[in-house]
Amino acid sequence: MNKKDLSERDICTKFINPAIQKAGWNMRTQVREEVSFTDGRIIVQGKLYTRGKNKRADYILYYKSNIPIAIIEAKDNKKAVGHGMQQALEYSEILQIPFIFTSNGDSFVFHDKTNTSGELEKELTLDNFPSPETLWQKYLKHTEIETPEAKAIVEKDYYADDSGMTPRYYQQNAVNRTLEAVAKGQNKIILVMATGTGKTYTAFNIIWRLWKTGVKKRILFLADRNALLTQTKNGDFSPFGNDIMHIIKNRKIDKSYQIYFALYQGLTSTDEDKNAYKEFSPDFFDLIVIDECHRGSAAEASAWRDVLTYFDSATQIGLTATPKETKDVSNMDYFGDPVYNYSLKQGIEDGFLAPYKVVRITTSVDEGWRPTAGLIDKYGNEVEDRIYNLKDYDRKLAIDERTEIVAKKITEYLKATDRYAKTIVFCVDIDHANRMRQALINENADLVAKHWNYCVKITGDDEVGKQELDNFTDVEERFPVIATTSKMLTTGIDTKMVKFIVLESNIQSVTEFKQIIGRGTRIREAEGKVFFTIMDFRKATNIFARPDFDGDPVQIYEPLPDEPVIPPEGEDTTKPDNGKSIDPEDFRPTTPDIDIDDTTDGVAKYYVNQIPVTVVHERVQYYGKDGKLITESLKDYSKKNIEKEFSSLDDFIQKWNDSEKKEELIKELAEHGVLLEALREDVGLDLDDFDLICHIAYDQPPLTRKERANNVRKRNYFAKYSATAQRVLYSLLDKYEKEGITSIEQGSVLKVQPLSQMGSPVELVRAFGKKKDFDQAVKELENEIYNIA
Q1: What is the pLDDT of residues 273-302, one digit of tens each?
Q2: Which of 24, 188, 346, 398 is the least crowded, having the fewest Cβ atoms under 10 Å away?
Q3: Helical spans, DSSP H, in 659-758
Q4: Strands 615-616 and 620-623, bridge-based pairing
Q5: Residue 80, Cβ neighbours under 10 Å: how many?
Q6: How many Cα neighbours within 13 Å face the side chain of 631?
Q7: Under a CB-based contact definition with an 8 Å cutoff, are residues 337 and 330 in contact?
Q8: Which helix (H) or strand (E) covers residue 62, if one does?
Q9: What is the chain's alpha carbon radius of gyration, rounded to the nearest angstrom?
Q10: Half-sphere exposure of 767 (CA within 13 A, CB side)
């Protein structure tokens, strides 16, 4: 047997597997091969989307289930033994794995991240692969977890889910880093995880393992919405069983349970004597988990901080998507640095969170409006003479026509895309949410006449609206479709199917902005939810320009008055955001939300109408593959990226010809920022992918698919095949002309019409000989289509 002739998979089976099995690794419970640990980011192209490549490790080795400790990158024997080390190191950083190996079947190269002062990399024979216990003890020593009590904590099993659900890699990281911190005696811990990444599920796994060890017997889970408590208790936490779990309501304390759920405000009161938490002794709880801890729980002046101080002996774990750092509130000051951080940007890059488009709309009064002298509003109040702008609208001054034009644009977008797409409209206050609801009902009178709850106001003061909240968040329920709100839906509520978020509120902080964006980041691929759209009427998306914002939109669009609200997949006509000054007032720190929406705090609000309001236009912009704003035209941007991948036209043609599946090459281009669907619309010609690339990047005269197909038909190419084979090839050529090259490369092409009517796939393949002969014929057809010799 010559190793050089073996495939990478053969090397794994014949050499790597026996070596690690001999070292004591259980191949069934401790070794996973070909592990895909990301889903591949979603790349949006107009109304279509594709997935980028997912990240896949050849081997991940686990000390125990969900406790990864080593990674192995395998290569065939034609490559050097350490050939895959750089890729393996990249993956180890993401997965937070300390021990990295590569192998080509001759030996292993071992990179030991715990060996900070000695030999980082060395070669090991196949017989000297380290055992699970050897690596685990090295890791424990490195992390200074050496007492029996500490080891018991980090070695405790995860909950074994009967459904087969297991934590994603970043959830494993969050859980394992938290348990290590607890094992080392750290009593204040914070986890930063983007909205939609499963913070509650992560919290359950942390609590389960700590509770099972017996080191944390009484646990308090603090949240700030009643819906969250019930959702958490009956959802992720259900494996604990109802017998030991209890939701504290109406400040009534029962000390016979082990796991408690409570609202922040349900434990505190302005009346010191009514502070319910003081009915517990200060050492009653061993562990307190604070959900959405950015919402003021760490503020020195907050009553919630009193709860944490009272139970100071308990380990306290804060969960947030957006740690708050202002002069008054500091999560980091209270909890310290995060033990783990998983950002919105990383979630989108991994394909676990939905990307988003931005439609920016500016009205003619947004830059400023001044009343005429002595103007009286609808209710007889003389409007104060000054210049009003976006900060004032709907807080100090309501203009009916502006509200109506916002409702019209929202409806226009829904009609052009999906009138049943779940939509949240964030308003300034309850009054604004009510007026926006009325305007939207008028714009959607046809659907409202059939379904009264097509559009509802969901605010803290509205019992009917709050009752509709469950229907709005239910994936199976169609109605309500549109929810107008002010603060109630900004955080915590799991709105899986929201596809459209409208910003009609003066959002003043990155924290609040991220929370609002988080309402749309859940992916529901089976139901068609793979990205969402933000329509911004308040310039809130200027926050994208902030250095502390960690995720960028895939597109920004601002339509002209007579243009559709659906973003075109093309032109860029203006200057980037970073060329525009930003008013510091736009980013004032926001105050913590309360369960009942804020009001106009006693300040008079003027209500005016018969004011001419129109839509004005500023710019169209895209964000590229590196998250930076594209400031050049889409064609120039694409040309530059294509030239980076292919040094010349001949290089591109060679790569195109060598690609077994053109779809894979097109996916790679998309990952590098070349979005062919968007580019095709920009060019305005229905070109084949091949011709589009040649035309844009290399100035070649383009041919349509029809022209290419006709050129093949004119040549005497099919004569060498039997009559049946010729019919198959002519049908494939017709299919290419109508649908493109990727349609004839699909394995199921022989199962669809008209080919399926000619005979079974086996019969059709037999007309060419064997399967490899059919594949060769398809390859030759492709070469004929593109006239590649």
Answers
A1: 678 899 999 999 999 999 888 655 555 446
A2: 24
A3: 662-671, 676-683, 689-698, 705-714, 723-739, 742-745
A4: unpaired
A5: 13
A6: 7
A7: no
A8: strand 56-64
A9: 30
A10: 20
Cα gap 374→16, rounded to integer Å = 86
Query: Distance between CA 255 and CA 246 in Å, rounded?
Result: 10
Tokens 């920016």 identify what position? 360
What's the CA gap between 627 and 570, in Å, rounded? 17
Across 437-442, average pLDDT: 98
For residue 416, pLDDT beyond 50: yes
From residue 219, alpha-carbon distances to 150, 179, 714 in Å are: 19, 15, 78
Q: Do the beta carbons of residue 429 and residue 597 sit within 8 Å?
A: yes
| Other beta carbons within 10 Å of 300 | 11
- Mind giving me the DSSP string for 495-557? -TTEEEEEE-S----HHHHHHHHTTS---BGGGTBS-EEEEESSSGGGGGGSTT-----SEEE
Q: Where are the alpha helices (DSSP H) in 81-168?
A: 85-95, 132-142, 148-154
Q: Name the average pLDDT for the chain.
A: 86
At residue 574, the pLDDT reads: 31
DSSP characters over 363-386: ETTTT-B-PPTT-B-TTSPBPPSS
b/e per residue 263-292 (b: at least 16 CB within 10 A) = bbebbbeeeeeebbbbebeeebbbbbbbbb
Give the pair of three-digit tokens for residue 580.
């525009």
**What pLDDT digit, counting tens, does each position of 356-405 carry?**
888 889 999 999 999 999 999 999 999 999 999 999 999 999 999 999 99
Burial class (CB in 10 A: 0-12, 13-18, 19+), 694: buried
More confident residue, 131 or 684: 131
Helices (H) and strands (E) in the chain, counts: 27, 28
268 CA to centre of own chain: 35
- Give me the count of residues in the chain: 789
Nearest to 197 by CA among 324, 53, 346, 51: 346
The 8-class DSSP code of residue 53 comes to: P
- Report the first-to-last Cα separation within the chain, whole angstroms: 37
> How far apart are the C-alpha atoms of 755 and 262, rounded to whole Å?
63
- Residue of 549, 698, 537 lying closest to 615 (CA atoms): 537
Does pTM top 0.90 for this prediction?
no
The answer to whether residues 641 and 674 touch, using CB atoms and an 8 Å cutoff, is yes
- Per-residue pLDDT, 621: 47
> Would you state the pLDDT for residue 45?
67
Average pLDDT over residues 50-60: 91
In angstroms, the CA 505 to CA 486 distance is 8
Q: Which two tokens stand for residue 429?
A: 């206050």
**Nearest alpha carbon to residue 481 among 473, 491, 493, 489:** 473
* Closest by Cα among 692, 563, 545, 543 to 628: 545
How do residues 270-280 score in pLDDT, each as one tens digit? 676 678 899 99
CA gap 340, 204 in Å, rounded:
16
Residue 642 tokens read as 């294509």
Report the distance separating Cα 301 and Cα 284, nearest Å. 24
- The answer on pLDDT for 628 being more than 70 is no
Q: How far is CA 236 from CA 158, 232, 247, 462, in A?
A: 14, 6, 15, 29
Smallest CA-to-CA distance from 498 within 458, 537, 528, 468 is with 528
Out of 106-110, 117-121, 456-460, 673-677, which region has the weakest mean confidence (pLDDT)? Answer: 673-677
Per the CB < 8 A criterion, the answer to whether 420 and 481 are in contact is yes
Reported as a single tens digit per residue, the pLDDT across 2-35 is 899 999 999 999 999 999 999 999 999 999 999 9
Indicate if the pLDDT at residue 718 is higher than 80: yes
Q: Which two tokens stand for residue 786?
A: 């593109």
Rounded alpha-carbon distances, angstroms, from residue 779 to 142, 658, 784: 55, 10, 9
